[in-house]
Amino acid sequence: MTDQPAATFPIQLGLDTFGDVTEPISGTPLAATPLTHAQSIRNLVDQAVLADQIGLDFIGVGEHHRVDFAVSAPEVVLGAIAARTTNIRMGSAVTVLSSDDPVRVYERFATVDALSNGRAEVILGRGSFTESFPLFGLDLADYEELFEEKINLFAEVLHDAPVTWNGNKRGPLTDQWVYPRPESGTLKTWVGVGGSPQSVVRAAHYGMPLFLAIIGGQPAQFAPFADLYRRALAQFEQPLQPIAMHSPGFVAATDEEALEILYPYQEAQTNQLGRERGWPPYSREQYLATAGPEGALYVGSPETVATKIVRNLRILGASRFDLRYSMGLLPHEHLLSSIGLYGREVAPMVREMMAAAPEPIAG
């Protein structure tokens, strides 16, 4: 496979977080009492401020409704970030549209857009967790229909015009404006996809940029989805749109330091999810394989992480990479250090390498 046309769009380096509840620095990983949800949220805002100060392009905040993640209302957190930052763009990672109301989602993000002077983005998705469905009284049997209908309404609300719409899961709208209106006329809206061809085609149908959530396996396995997306855009006669990718990772001074710091937290979080979902125990061999050159975990020195990002941006023809920098109970101080290295060292390396003459990459 040769390089895809990522250079059509400017290269961007961002971050995202699920607002993981963390532990304080202690002598033994996972031995301390975790921080409160409140302190974890305050720390998240400080992390976003650092990302802004060192010139990163984006900070995304996920939505979850469970004990190990502190953020259930990302727009509120983004409002706090907007008030303390100047340049960084901000958004969801992702907004679970299936269990929310598209009109309210639009109104909340349009408000963040106003507070941030036009820096808000929305990443719409179905989410990898389903706890919001019983919490808000929704039937998981309607999983597909809810998202299909709600993204259709959201696409209508994006137009700078009154909305007339009818569906099965929500009351109709007739010639209805939705406020506040963004000063630019619309909100930048992505569709987050974890591996469904139908979701890829849906993003192309609406002419929305594609955001690939690559949290396991090999990023090269997602190249067919990127190719499908570009073909579908052409078939729907939509203009070319950017492709972004998100993956977890951690940056330290050396590969060895990064691998050793992250492993106990990655192991604990993966095993917790495994107990919920019936996965076998996580092994160090799995960890090292996923952290290797072809895996989906970006852990290592700045040079190692930058080289891996460039490789996969080229394979997918993507122009943006967001690092999920929060990993389980990994302490705030480690997160700040990783963010600093990512912004000050990884990001410049990636931009420099992507600006150089592209090299064919097999995969």
From TrEMBL:
Residues 35-318 form the Luciferase-like domain. Keywords: Monooxygenase, Oxidoreductase. It comes from the Bacteria. CDD domains: Flavin_utilizing_monoxygenases (cd00347). Pfam families: Bac_luciferase. SUPFAM superfamilies: Bacterial luciferase-like (SSF51679). PANTHER family: BLR5498 PROTEIN, LUCIFERASE-LIKE MONOOXYGENASE. NCBIfam families: LLM_2I7G (TIGR03858). This is LLM class flavin-dependent oxidoreductase.
